[in-house]
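retry 2 of 3: previous attempt timed out while embedding NDP. Reduced batch size to 1 and resubmitted. Inputs unchanged:
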Amino acid sequence: MILLDGKKTSIEIKEEIKKTVSAIKLKGERVPHLAAVLVGNDGASLTYVGNKVRSCEYVGFKSTLIKLENNISEIDLLKQIQILNSDNTLDGYIVQLPLPKHIDEQKVLLAIDSKKDVDGFHPENFGRMSLELDAFVPATPYGIIKLLERYKIPTDGKHCLVVGRSNIVGRPISILMSQKRISGNATVTLAHSRTKNLKKLTKQADIIIMALGIPEFLTSDMVKDDVCVIDVGITRVVDKNNPKGYVIKGDVDFKEVSKKAGYITPVPGGIGPMTIAMLLQNTLQARQWNLS
Ligand code: NDP
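retry 2 succeeded.
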């Protein structure tokens, strides 16, 4: 079994980005600038945004954290989005999801200037990605592709099963895996909560990408020998023995499935850190597109 070490790979990618930023600085040009909008005080969101800001600092980007009250109105949030859209010192920004229930997430994501949409959630970027045109690819699917690429995992003609069809993970990765590209050319099946006899599909698959958010859902009796398993799931499970009061679990029973798998990602230390690295990559790309 080969462990697909997302932490190590993400550090390699961050080092490469850091070098590029140093070269930008040497030329006396402005370094990439990423902003993050955080609404409210959700613990997990605070952690994710904190990690993103720290990673920006590590590679030499400028970063700005915009913290807004949980009770901000949709109109005021949209005004904030317009300010960010017209800020010429900013290459890209993200709005950390989920947003409070009284705010229409789609409305907010649609208001983001697609040229600054480094999360790749805007329909223009989603459409361009689907058509294999230059686009910001959503960071998590992009991280999966890069990890497969760096470990030279064969994907050509393989049966790839994606479990979960969300707009930010499942659906985009199913598109990317089916494209004529490196770490693509797979025959893809996209499964979801209405899929019948999922076990029959998981047992056939050469590559399984789990993105549903149910801890340890994929068990060893559901997979064939030498399967490649990518675990996107991140769920906080209450654990009174842990000083934090919780542990992070993926969608895969890692202990048992890793005994059968050819390749597998851990949680934590798999797709999570790769997601952050690819957000930085998208921001660097935004800076380069701004220059040209
Ligand atoms: P969503 O809740 O948006 O989507 C979950 C998907 O799983 C849905 O398509 C749902 O089907 C499907 N599903 C639910 N139950 C089952 C089931 N029993 N069998 C088959 N399919 C099922 O989740 P996200 O895509 O946003 O996130 C998925 C997981 O990935 C979460 O744990 C999240 O925290 C994590 N995540 C991790 C990231 C990272 O950086 N590593 C980034 C983003 C997410 P249906 O559509 O029919 O409801």
